[in-house]
C-alpha cells in the first residue's frame, strides 16, 4: 500500500513538471528537440510482466485494441485483460517531459487501484535513444508496484528506439511561407508607424496628411509609339510589310512573268503600283523617299524579259 502510494505520487509529480509543447514533442532546458510522434501506431504495442500478464499500450494515442468494461475507452493509453473487466494503466497523454537527457511520457488517472483509496493506476515510460534500433522498438517493463500482477498499480517502462534521439524541428513548406508573410506584414506595419510618427512630430502634419502614401504618380510611363514607328520605318526601308504580306519577303528567283516575291509574280510597272504594294496608302508618313524600280537589262515597263 505504501509502495503504491509513493510510486503514484512520484508519477504525478513528474507529470506536473511537463511543459506545454506541440503534441508528442518537447524541448529540453537547452533547446534540444525531441519528437516521439513517429511512435504513434495503428496497432498497439505490447509488453509482458514478470508473471506473464500481457499489457497493450500506444504512444500519444488511445489504444486501438478493443477494451471491455472500461469507462472513457477512447482515452485509454494502456490496459490489461482481467476476469471482471479490463484494467487501465493510464489515460492518453501527448505531453512529453525530459529527464536526464531522456524523453519521458507519463500516463495517469487509470483504473482504481485494487489496494483501495483514491489512488489510480499510472505509468511512466522512459525512452532511450538507441540508433541501433532501426524500427520503433518495443516497450519493456522494468518494475511494477506493488510487485504482484493482481495488485500492481504503478508501472515503469523502458523503451529503446531511434525516435528518442534528438532531432531537428522542421517548419515545413507552409510554415516557412507563413513566416515570410508575417515578416513582410511586420515590416509594412513598422514602416507605416514610423511614417506617421515622422509626419506628425517632425513635419507637423495632422489628420489624413500624416498617413503614409505611396507616390504612384512618380512611376514613369513608357511611350511605345516611338518604338513602333521605328520598327515600321525599318521594315519599309527593307522592302518588308508584315501587315500585308504576312511573312518575310525575299526574292525567290525569275519566272516567265518576272521576279517572284512571296506571292507576287511580277515587279510593279509604275511608282504608284509599287507604293500600293508596300502599303504607302496606309502609312505614307513612314516612307521618306519613293521606291526606285531597277529592272534587269532586257526587261520592258510591263516586267517582261525580251531575249
Outline:
The protein is of the alpha+beta class and 307 residues long.
Write up what this structure looks like.
The protein is of the alpha+beta class and 307 residues long. It is built from five helices and 13 strands. The chain folds into three domains: 2-164, Mannose-6-phosphate receptor binding domain (Cation-dependent Mannose-6-phosphate Receptor, Chain A, Distorted Sandwich), CATH 2.70.130; 172-218, no CATH class; 241-307, no CATH class. It has helices spanning 2-17, 172-202, 225-237, 242-245, 271-277, and strands at residues 25-27, 33-35, 45-48, 54-57, 76-80, 87-91, 96-99, 102-107, 122-129, 139-145, 154-161, 251-255, 258-261. The longest helix is centred in the middle third of the chain and has 31 residues, at 172-202. It starts with a helix and ends in a 30-residue tail after the last helix. Residues 1-19, 241-265 and 280-287 have low confidence and may be disordered. Strand 12 (251-255) and strand 13 form a beta hairpin. The protein has a five-stranded mixed sheet, covered by helices on one side. A four-stranded antiparallel sheet has the order 3-4-5-6, with no helix packed on it. It has a two-stranded antiparallel ribbon with strand order 1-2. The protein is elongated, with a radius of gyration of 44 Å.
Amino acid at each position: 500500500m505504501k509502495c503504491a502510494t509513493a510510486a503514484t505520487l512520484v508519477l504525478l509529480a513528474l507529470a506536473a513538471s511537463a511543459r506545454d509543447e506541440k503534441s508528442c514533442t518537447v524541448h529540453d532546458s537547452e533547446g534540444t528537440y525531441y519528437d516521439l510522434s513517429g511512435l504513434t501506431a495503428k496497432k498497439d504495442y505490447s509488453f509482458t510482466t514478470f508473471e506473464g500478464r500481457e499489457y497493450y499500450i500506444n504512444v500519444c494515442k488511445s489504444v486501438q485494441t478493443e477494451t471491455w468494461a472500461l469507462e472513457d475507452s477512447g482515452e485509454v493509453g494502456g490496459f490489461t485483460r482481467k476476469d471482471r473487466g479490463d484494467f487501465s494503466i493510464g489515460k492518453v497523454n501527448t505531453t512529453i517531459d525530459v529527464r536526464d537527457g531522456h524523453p519521458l511520457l507519463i500516463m495517469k488517472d487509470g483504473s482504481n487501484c485494487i489496494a483501495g483509496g483514491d489512488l489510480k493506476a499510472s505509468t511512466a515510460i522512459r525512452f532511450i535513444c538507441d540508433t541501433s534500433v532501426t524500427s520503433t522498438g518495443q516497450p519493456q517493463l522494468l518494475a511494477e508496484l506493488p510487485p504482484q500482477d493482481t495488485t500492481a498499480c504503478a508501472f515503469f517502462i523502458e523503451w529503446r528506439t531511434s525516435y528518442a534521439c534528438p532531432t531537428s524541428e522542421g517548419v515545413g513548406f507552409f510554415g516557412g511561407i507563413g513566416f515570410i508573410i508575417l515578416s513582410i506584414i511586420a515590416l509594412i506595419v513598422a514602416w507605416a508607424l514610423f511614417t506617421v510618427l515622422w509626419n506628425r512630430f517632425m513635419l507637423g502634419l495632422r489628420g489624413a496628411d500624416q498617413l503614409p502614401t505611396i507616390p504612384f504618380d512618380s512611376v514613369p510611363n513608357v511611350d511605345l509609339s516611338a518604338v513602333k514607328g521605328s520598327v515600321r520605318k525599318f521594315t519599309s526601308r527593307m522592302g518588308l510589310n508584315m501587315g500585308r504580306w504576312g511573312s518575310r519577303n525575299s526574292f525567290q528567283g525569275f519566272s516567265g512573268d518576272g521576279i517572284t516575291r512571296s506571292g507576287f509574280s511580277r515587279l510593279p510597272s509604275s511608282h504608284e503600283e509599287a507604293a500600293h504594294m508596300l502599303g504607302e496608302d496606309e502609312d505614307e508618313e513612314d516612307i521618306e523617299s519613293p521606291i526606285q524600280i531597277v529592272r534587269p537589262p532586257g526587261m520592258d515597263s510591263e516586267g517582261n524579259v525580251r531575249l
